Structures are given as C-alpha cells and as structure tokens.
Amino acid sequence: MKQVYINSIGSISGQKTFDNNEFLNDIVDYEDNVISVIDPIYKDYIPPAAARRMAKGIKMGVVASKIALQDAGLENVDAIITGTGMGCVRDSEKFVSAIIDNDEQYLTPTSFIQSTHNTVGGQIALELQCKGYNFTYVHGSNSFESALLDAKLQLENNEEHNILVGGVDELGDHTVTIHKLINHIKPHAVKSSELLKSNSVGAVFAEGANFFVLSNEKQASSYAEVTAVKLFNTLTKAEITKAATDFLAENNLEVSDIDILILGNNGDIEHDGYYHELQSGPFKNTQQVYYKHLCGEFNTASSFGFWLASKIIKTQSLPESVKLNNIKQASFKTILLYNQYRGENHSFTLLKQC
Asked: What is the pLDDT of residues 67-93, one digit of tens each?
C-alpha cells in the first residue's frame, strides 16, 4: 500500500488562518459564546456576482479549497470528499421559515436547493470542473475524520493520486438559539484565552472551513504523512486510555514515541473529563496542545486541529497560544490527535513527519 501525504492546506476560521505564510502570529482573543470566522476577501477568489448567491458555508468551503489547491500547485484533483455536520444550515432555516411565513405557498426553490449537505462539495466541483468521485459525509463530529479515512483508503490502494478533503460548518441564527436552549452553548460570554477556566456546561460555538490536498505522491513541500485514523461512536471515560494505547500499538508505537498530543478540549465541564483521562494518565509527560479556544466548537472543528498539526510538523514550531503544559520537545515528528463531542464520536488521528 502507498503512503498518504498532506501536500497542502487551506483554512478559514476565527483566526487569520487564510494566509498560509502566517502561523497564529496574531491571535484574536474573543469574549463571547458564539464566534464567526474572520472572512478573507472573497472577491479575490469568487466573482462578486456569484458570491452574492452563495451561502456562508459555500463561500468558506470554496475559498478554503482554492487556497489548498494553490498551496499544492494544482489546478484540479481526482476526487473531492467533504465532511459537514450541519451542512448549509442557513439556507435550511430560510426555507423552513418561508414554509411557515407563506403558509406553504409561493415558495422559491433556491434555498431548498442550496440547503443540502453536499452543496459545498458540488459547488467546489463546479468551480474546478472536477468530474471525479465526489462524496459528503454527515457523521456528526466524526464527519471530517470519515472523509479523511475514505481519502486515505483510496490513496493507499492507488485508486486516486490527489484528493481534496475538507470539513466545513456554518452558524445559523435559529440553530444557535436552539443549542442555547438545550445548554450546548455556554450561557455567558467567555474569554477565549480563559476557556478552560470557565467552569460551566456547554461550549463556545463557531464555524469554519479547513481543506487539504492529500496525495500518495510526496512533494518537497509536503506537510506531513497521515499514518492512521480510527473512529469510535461511543467510549466510556474508563475506556479512553486503553483505546489510545491500543491505537498506538496497532501502529507499532508507544506513548513515549508521541511528541505532541493535540486535544479537543472545549471548556465543557461535563465532557472535558475524556481529555483529562489522557492528560493526567499515560500522556502526562507529553507536550499537550489544544485549539478550540481559537476556532470554537463545531462538528468539523477537528479539521482545525488537523490543520494545526500539519503546520506544527512542517514549521517545527509550536505557538505559545496552544500549549496546555510546559513540557518541551526538541522536535515534532509524531503527533496524535484525539477529539470527541459530548461523549460521542471519538477519533484518533496519527500524523508523522515525512
């Protein structure tokens, strides 16, 4: 089987990540419980007339994918695989609201057409004129990892050579209101830099798009190698440590081989305990990193963690803003990522220097 490499990245998030020449040099410290992305200049990538008709998620996805393609020096790819938890939720809200407001009459189909979860992948394909494999995974907070696993299997078996893989989710006003009512969003504004000290239920919700060109052909500019991905629907806190160490053993690694552990802590006191099991357990002497204070929580937020790991390995630098502890490593060759959301959809991803 062939090896799989990350040849490029493109990110739009609550930080200024759309510029690949920067690496979290200028951190935006929010004080809120819902965070929007910092928008790039969309007209630099999409004609203004077309951009006006696009939902926020579509624009973010199209631009992040174009940044990734530029970074890889490609004009097209063999396949496009997208992960999303809620899809184009704003257009879904518009259409449902129109049904209610217009008493189910005189409805325009535009919002309905653009509300489907695969709209982002379809729009990217239209922009690129890519007629290859195009699939969208909607697996909650494992959506991005599902897309990543699909791409990895195809590349390992040499079915394709370059695959665009990404995760994208947008905020919708009605959806945010619902999540606030059921305490999935923190009841009060929280300062980003003090997220883990919030001592409250819920997370700081956000949106974002992170895309990557994966290939089985290594380039001089490649970021890292994707070694393994493993998903679990449910795990108890007592099972986390064994799941992590078993995952490493399956890949002929031990805890001491991991240079950095990247965790998806979001400040929710009811569910961050899953991360604490690893933090205070087998990885207590490992450099630990977190990222959701920078990008917020959304179904494909783990794609931002994947972006972070890729940048750390390529630049061999670790921004102070993401450190969870003060353990220092001389170099960053092997990184383990672990994410879960509200006790479900656990994922382990292993990246290595290539």
From this structure: 999 999 999 999 999 999 999 888 888
Q: CB-based contacts of 213: which residues, under 8 Å, 6+ apart?
A: 6, 7, 8, 68, 69, 71, 72, 74, 77, 162, 163, 164, 165
Q: What are 134's two structure tokens?
A: 């195009």
Q: Which backbone phi and psi does 247 adopt, to 5 degrees?
A: -60, -45
Query: Using CB atoms within 10 A of its CB, is residue 78 exposed (0-12), middle (13-18) or buried (19+)?
Result: middle
Q: Are residues 272 and 305 in the same domain?
A: yes
Asked whether residue 23 falls in the same domain as residue 141, the answer is: yes
Separation CA 71–CA 65 (nearest Å): 10
Q: Global pTM? A: 0.96
Residue position matching structure tokens 């189910």: 104
Percent of the chain residues past pLDDT 70, beyond the cut: 100
Q: What is the CATH number of the domain that holds 305?
A: 3.40.47.10
End-of-domain residue from the set 160, 189, 215:
215
Q: What is the pLDDT of residues 313-334, one digit of tens each?
A: 999 999 999 999 999 888 999 9
Decide the pairing of beta strands 162-169 and 79-83. parallel
Locus of tokens 């129109």: 98
